[in-house]
Amino acid sequence: MGIKKNIINKDNNNDSVFLMEIAGNLEKSDGISSASLMMGTEANKDILIQANLLTEEGEKAKENDLIIAIAADSEKILKDSIQKIEHSFENAGSEKQEEGDFKPPTFEAALKTLKNPNFALISVAGEYAAREAGRALDNGLNVMIFSDNVSLEDEIKLKKKANSRDLILMGPDCGTAIIGGVPLGFANMVSVGNIGIVAASGSGLQEVTVTIDKEGAGITHAIGTGGRDLSLDVGGITMSTGITTLEEDPSTEVMVLLSKPPHPDVAKKLIQKAKKINKPVVICFLGSKGFKSEGNITFTSSLEGAGIAAAQLSKGEKISLPEFTVDNIDAMLEKDLNNLLGDNSGNNAGDNKYIRGLYAGGTLCDESIDIMKGSGISPYSNAGVPEKMKLKDSNKSFENSMVDMGEDEFTKGRPHPMIDLSLRNKRIEAEAKDDETAVILFDLVLGYGANPDPAKDMTDTLNKVKDKKILVASVCGTDSDPQNYSDQVAQLEKCGVTVLPTNAQATRYACKVIEEIKAR
């Protein structure tokens, strides 16, 4: 590993996304094998130990201290990296100063500075998040907890407190929301309209909101609940409150409810509540079966379907959910198959059998798994599948495989793949070397907090593998996002990637490729 060093910044608590961005940028530098910036909690120290990054100096860090951990090839590279980190902190500070922002030193000072605040976003170490969220609720603020590592017991206690005060608590681990047109966390810039969303999924919420935007409709509010909200223990407290909130909001005319499979009893309770609303409600509980559309309720089996159906209802149109929304699917398919199986490719239909999916968005990965099952393909995965279909080693695909690279096993001690694409780039190269791989399927998630130019960071890798395998992708974003959707799509297509309008369509297309290969 070369030289390993830990630096402690006393009482320096920074936004976790900002810290991940710094670490991700460092790891792209030559001579840096690993880098991490995290608070000195015992849980974070365990992560650094597993990454072989913690030193005796780092062990001394207190919970409010920032640990900067770097592994470099030389002292000079290490010194340069530390200077880069210092510049990042200085630039962040100067940007805030130039914008005229005042940074209150305490929670109480923030309350006094702001005029009639009603919302607090909590992004601190998990062991402190519950305490800060409780203080915010006690002061009459609605709360979004971006932090994870909050106990289930604390989550239930906080949500009951919020409910008793006629407030809403989003999270913990609520990574995405749009409140009054303002994107929070990992969110996209979408049009304002008449559709309100309550979602127990971050990337799922993003996919639905950008689909609605592309369909010419818009959002009032997109409320995140945190991934455990629809469990039996929590009982859907935040989703229930969100339904009431959107029901009472005169600007919300259509409602969307999103989740991975909820507990059946919780699902039944929420559906019964939605049926009593005098507004159309679109429900997508991914992977759940047996629901039938009736009355004001429309069930869809995909995130794409939820977005399109909501947009159509918002415009007074009849619901129509086509398999593809592009006209030249057959021509695209023929071109890709010829490139893969043509005389000059060195491949043959017997070698290329499988889809290898590599995802940054966990719910997008789940959606793809559901769609593949519907096409007669049962993929292995590291998440969201029965035990018998779990990958024995998440770092190695087996037959058709869908890998959620945002899972903890990939993100411990390193930035999320929405920020840092280096780990996924390496995996794409590995999949391209496998003779049995036919299609490499992946997502690109844009928006605030995400990589500023993800397609550019993938260019070298994609150009290396584009003549070996069929590359299929979807881009979750809009032209109003900082990265610009159209620009990202153009960059990918230049690298030989077949880009579909949604993740669902990209997955269906990948399945068609496999069907055609079998037919030949």
Give structural notes.
It is a single chain. This protein has 520 residues and is α/β, with parallel strands linked by helices. The protein folds into four domains: 3-98, Alpha-Beta Plaits, CATH 3.30.70; 104-173, 3-Layer(aba) Sandwich (Rossmann fold), CATH 3.40.50.720; 175-321, Succinyl-CoA synthetase domains (Rossmann fold, 3-Layer(aba) Sandwich); 329-519, Rossmann fold (3-Layer(aba) Sandwich), CATH 3.40.50.261. Helix content is 41%, strand content 19%. It has 18 helices and 19 strands. It has helices spanning 16-27, 42-50, 56-59, 75-98, 107-113, 126-138, 152-164, 202-214, 237-248, 264-275, 303-314, 329-341, 362-374, 408-411, 422-432, 454-465, 485-494, 503-519, and strands spanning 3-9, 32-39, 66-72, 119-122, 142-145, 169-170, 176-179, 182-185, 192-199, 219-224, 254-259, 281-285, 297-299, 354-359, 380-381, 401-404, 437-445, 470-476, 498-500. A six-stranded parallel sheet has the order 15-16-14-17-18-19, with helices on both faces. The protein starts with a strand and ends with a helix. The model has no long low-confidence stretch (mean pLDDT 91).
